[in-house]
Each structure stands twice: as structure tokens, then as C-alpha cells.
Amino acid sequence: MKIQKKNQSSTEARLLKLKSQLAASKRRPILFVGSGISQRYVNMPNWNQLIQELFDRIKTPHPFEYYMQREKQDLIKVAEKLVNFYSNYYWKEKVKKQSPKELYASGNPKDVFLKYEISKIILEHFEQFDSGKSVYREELQALRGITPQLFITTNYDNFLENQFPKYTPIISSEGIIAGEQSDSFSILKIHGSVEQYKSIVIDKNDYDTFNENQLYIVSKLITYLVDYPVIFIGYSANDPDIRRVLSSVKKIQKKNSSSPVMQNMWFIDWAGKISETELQPDVKYLALDGTESIGVNYLKLTSFTELFEVLHQETVDVDALKTLQHTIYQIIKSSSITKLDIDVANIDYLKNPDEFLQLLTKKDVFLNLAQMADPDQLAATFVLTPTQLAKAVFGSEGNWQMVNRFIDEVATQIGLNIRKNNNPYHVNLSGTSRYSTAAVDLLKMLKDGKTVILDPTSTVTPFHMAE
User: Fold this and answer.
1) Residues 111/202, Cβ–Cβ less than 8 Å
2) Running DSSP on this structure, what letter comes out for residue 345?
3) Using one digit for the tens of pLDDT, what is the confidence trace for 95-145?
4) pLDDT score, position 246
């Protein structure tokens, strides 16, 4: 019994270490998600089972086991055999009539049929998934409560998209390399996706291309992989994909550090039961290419609920974070940055963080303004001075003090003080407030006692009357 308490204490201590590391880094974690997660929650086949199911679906000269023996358990080489088998199968007249015409385009590679069949298998399994009826409901609820910087996965299925609908899927290594801006709040599907079955990495040619791109992907993500907490979950210690990633990280980082342990990285293991006498190492050394190895923090669990609770971080809405990120990116890359007069986070926001966060939750407020990189475009949209706005709303007796007081009075009612930040009604240009014609319509309706609901996602009709 004492040993059991000691093991429990060890697990709790490591979870506390991870929590402290997250707090100290002040960053969101990166999650590498392997097939073990899809197997756990969706009952997806692992790669071995998937290849076997592909053999079982059609008639082949020999069974799956025969090719496994011939190719010395090399699943990539075994999958290569399936390329011809499925190409021949799909060109049978009966099968061709029942299959999508796009498969038979002359420009398609021969492996398109195998990849299409893989997507069918995975989608069939996914149709059986219901998170509300899952025995892992508690874990799934805790999982949905996390907001990592990004997910990186070798899985083809849509489990992560299903659980994190506000994250943007980026599919295939080419898609990641071609990505123009930050990949934050995305799901990087480096081996492809069932939604784009041609992107699936399955045979030798695919893996050759992927391996060529591997270093470029890691180089692009090196800041994340080195400076952020990184969690590997759903992988085996011998997984070749993890070995390749860590080998690339070690090559890039070798000049900067001689330490064999990556303190920011965690390898999460699962076991149905952990023996009372089992001693768990604090660090797990993973074999890399040749004789090299690398150490990462190690944690074995029987349930992931506590892990996901530790990974939970208070945050504003992911859509708002993505909008802010995109806006800042647009401003930074703008060729007219020296002329850009939009103050995205000025001192007024910093003085009133609650109002700033409230504005963040209104999707695309910043995005609409960030796309107006030309000050002339802004001046053409926000045409009214405060005095002109006052006269348009209150008539000839109106003045800027009157309109400012009225805006302040209705701020609570509409949930936004339009003169205190940049929005579809107001913008600060070189220290001068300017208003759009939408502000006239809005304030007139409020002056007449009408109830309106803001829609800051639109610069054309940014509000409507309540029903």
C-alpha cells in the first residue's frame, strides 16, 4: 500500500511539474497527436490493422501475412504491394461504374485508388463515433477544455477537427511549408487527411517526399518545438515519425545545447493498469537515427483526464485570438506600415482590459480594419468628424461634447463604447476620431429609443434591430 501511494505521489508530482512549466513559460502547449488517441476514442484501426483490412477487402494473390513475412514487417513496402492490387480492382468495369469519376482522371497517380479506399475505411469507422455515448466522456470533456497553440498529427481522421471545430486544418507537408503566416490555432495534418484523400501518405513515394520535407517542416516550427511546452500523446516510443521529428530538432539545436534532455518536451504513455511495484523513470530516452538518443520528460497514466485538466488554460474565444493574430500579421507584413494609422491595441485598451477582451470576442472587428491598410481607404470609409456626427444625429444644435456623452451613455446598452476603440463605427486616424455613416444610423436609432443588436463582423450592416 505504501508503494502505491508512492507511485500516486510520483504521478501527481510530475503533473504538478508540467503545470508549473506551463505557468512559467506563459505559452500554450504544442500537442503531437498519434494514432493511439484515435484508437482510444474512435476505435480506429492502427496502421497494421488498416493494412490488414485493406487486404481483407479485395482478393489478392496472397494474404496479408505472406507479404509481411516477405517484406520483413515493413508496412510501407507491404502498402506498396496494395497500390497495384487496388488499381487493378478499381479498373474493373463493375467497380468503376460505382466509383467517383474523378478517380479515373488521366493525371492521377496509380495510388489514388488505394488512398480513396483508406479514406472510406476511416470514414466508416468515424461514423460510429458518438462522444456523448463514449465510455471516455469525462476525458473528452476535459480534452475539449484545452486551447493549445497548435496540434500536429500524423492521423488521417477528423477526430481533432470534430473536437476542436475552431482550429484550422492544414493538410499535408506541402500545405504546411506553403503556409504564409503563423500556424497558431491550427491542426497540422502532416500525413494528409481523409477530406483530401490524395494527400494521404501511405506508400514509398509518399514517404520519400515527406522525408524530404521533414526538415523544412521542423525548421519552420523550430521556435514552437524548442520554446513551447511540447506534448507527445498517442505515440509509441519507437514511432518512426517521432524519431524523425526529434532527430531534426536535435540536429538544429545541437549547436546551441549539449544537454541530452529536452526539458520542454513530455512523452505521455497510457496503460490499462499500472503495477504497484512499477518504477517509472522521470526521463525517457528515445532512440534516434544511428546510435543517438534524446531524453524527454515521461509520464504514464491510466486516464488522461488529469492531464487535460493540467493543460487547461483560461483564454478568450479561439476565433477572437485567431482574428487578432491575423490582424497583427496583416499589419506587420503591410508595405505601407509606416503610413498605417490603425492603433490595434492603444493605451485606452490597456487601461480598460475588460473592454478590450469584450471587443476581442466580437469576431472580425480587427480583421475588417486590418484589411484597410491604406489610410486613404480609411478616410473614405470614416468620413465624419465628431462635430459632423453630432449634427447628423442631433441636428444643427449638436456638438462634439453632446455626441460623446450620448455614446458613453448607450455603451452599456449596446455592449461597446464605439469612440473608445477602432470598430466599424469609429477609427482613430493620427490621433483624430473619425466616424462612419453607420455610426449615424446607429446613434439615431438609439436616440429614438429603439433596441439594436450589434454585428461588428460586417462593415456594411454592422447592427440590426432587435425583434
Assistant:
1) yes
2) T
3) 999 999 999 999 999 999 999 999 999 999 999 898 888 999 999 999 999
4) 84
